[in-house]
Amino acid sequence: xxxxxxxxxAAVLAAVALAATLAVGGKEMAPVVQYTLLDGTQQxxxxxxxxxxxxxxxxxxxxxxVKEMPHLIETHQKFKDRxxxxxxxxxxxxxxxxxxNFAESRKLPFRxxxxxxxxxxxxxxxxxxTPTTFVLNKKGEIVKRYVGxxxxxxxxxxxxxxxxxxx
Length: 167
Known about the structure:
Elements (H helix, E strand, L loop, with lengths): L1 H24 L2 E2 L4 E3 L5 E3 L7 E7 L4 H17 L4 E7 L5 H10 L5 E4 L4 H5 L8 E5 L4 E7 L4 H13 L3
Parallel strand pairs: 4-5, 5-6
Antiparallel strand pairs: 1-8, 2-3, 4-7, 7-8
């Protein structure tokens, strides 16, 4: 009973925090996360402010993730020269060797990192289902969240709109 009350209290606090965030700015700010790319480079997500960013949580064992990856590559290639970045985050349960092999064999042209501790998934709202994709505007606000494969025509239209906006 006490645990249930604590869970309800936590849910209410989360809802109030989200409502306050939305009331102030209309959009939720993306969390700042630190990560290490597959090449060992340390990065922070807030360094991408000023760009439109697609953040994709995925796993090598997820058939939909594997199916959508060529579309993510195509999207990245189409928009990368216009202030667009892709951050691909492998889930904590994905074996690092599988992620490395996948990224190398498919020549992923964008930033790839592994969420070894699950901290990034937690900060992005307890991401558990893959693929889960977030689109961030130039201010670092979350403007869209997709669970499952996005409609890429609609995604491209959204990216065109966001890239045309000033920072």
